[in-house]
Amino acid sequence: MTQENLEAVLNDLHCKYKLLQDGVVANYIPELAKVNPELFSICVVTVDGEAYQVGDDKQLFTIQSISKVFAYGLALEDHGRDYVLTRVGVEPTGDAFNAIILDEQSNRPLNPMVNAGAIATTSLIKGNGATERLNRMLNMFRRYIGHDVFVDISVFTSERSTGHRNRAMAHLMLNFGMIDPNIEESLDLYFQQCAVMVNCYDLAVMAATLANKGINPVTKERAVNSSYIKDILSVMYTCGMYNFAGEWAYKIGIPAKSGVCGGIIAIVPNKMGIGVFSPRLDARGNSVRGVKVCEELSQQLGLHLFECSRNNFKSRDLCN
Q1: In whole angstroms, what is the distance from residue 205 CA to residue 227 CA?
Q2: Which phi and psi angles does 46 have, rounded to 5°?
Q3: Catalytic residue of the set 17, 68, 84, 237
Q4: Burial of 311 (0-12, 13-18, 19+ CB in 10 A)
Q5: Which of these is catalytic: 144, 155, 242, 298?
Q6: Start-end of H helices in 44-176
Q7: DSSP state of 317
Q8: Would you give the DSSP letter of residue 240?
Q9: pTM
Q10: Tens digits of per-residue pLDDT, 46-90?
Q11: Which of 35, 205, 224, 260 is catalytic?
Q12: Which of 116, 122, 113 is nearest to 244 (CA)?
């Protein structure tokens, strides 16, 4: 597929799905309820660093649960996969992302993409105190995105003041020794990582960095050790879309992660990263338009991992 054809595909999908009015914005976090539900953008960044975008691609929003992917990578770098696996499992769940559930045998949270697992993962991030841990987190995001990022204090405060369910998860995990006693510091860091501000282009660059074995294709800076890419993508593929993960893998077939901000990132290894932003969510907390766009992109470009497996990708030859 040529550059011109890809641009036409993205424009057609944007025109088609901007008319879709299904879903509602997240309202359990007061600040998120204020987001304009009509915002909509699609971005693709290749492993060569070429970008294709349409819609409100510069509109900032909080990254929310998409941050779990990258915090997991940082925890892996800090402790290694064997130790992280003692604290957080890798099993998919048919339950909602905010379910207060641990594995009955190991007492671990089921995976790092649900809230309980993400809180446990964030608690593993190293640093001498809250400030150093936050700075390490922000610097990690900078490597993936290619520029400095900041936390939206209004959203952070909103999540912190209403996050009682997340606190319940943290106390339950503390009871079983899955997280350290400094619960409030770890919860604050978790709420802050979810409140990092990005735009749709940033999401696509972050996704493309994972597709490019951990090297940002725009800045050429390494964002994460390449040995952990398989861990990150495997968990995204099986768990990243919560209790929609199985149908996503069946129909769309690429690693992905959603957030209640309305964002979705999807990774085509060795080829490209995809970012979609549209705040209207379905009952599972996934962007309605985002899911539709990714499904059509997968079908039109042959992106399903079991359909398009060749690695010698060039940005002007997306699969064929």
Answers
A1: 20
A2: -85, 170
A3: 68
A4: exposed
A5: 242
A6: 67-79, 81-87, 115-123, 130-145, 153-162, 164-175
A7: B
A8: T
A9: 0.93
A10: 999 999 999 999 999 999 999 999 999 999 999 999 999 999 999
A11: 260
A12: 113
Residue 76's identity, in one-letter code, is L
Q: Which of 17, 72, 190, 237 is catalytic?
A: 190
The answer to whether 25 is a known catalytic residue is no
Interval 258-296: pLDDT, tens: 999 999 999 999 999 999 999 999 999 999 999 999 999
Active-site residue, 242 included = yes
141 Cβ neighbours under 8 A, 6+ residues apart:
67, 70, 149, 196
| Position 199, amino acid | N
The question of whether 28 is a catalytic residue gets the answer no
Q: What is the dihedral of CA 257, 258, 264, 265, to 10 degrees?
A: -20
Is 260 a residue of the active site?
Answer: yes
Q: How far is it, in rounded angstroms, from Cα 2 to Cα 319?
A: 10
The verdict on whether 65 is a catalytic residue reads yes
Which residue among 41, 65, 158, 298 is the active-site one? 65
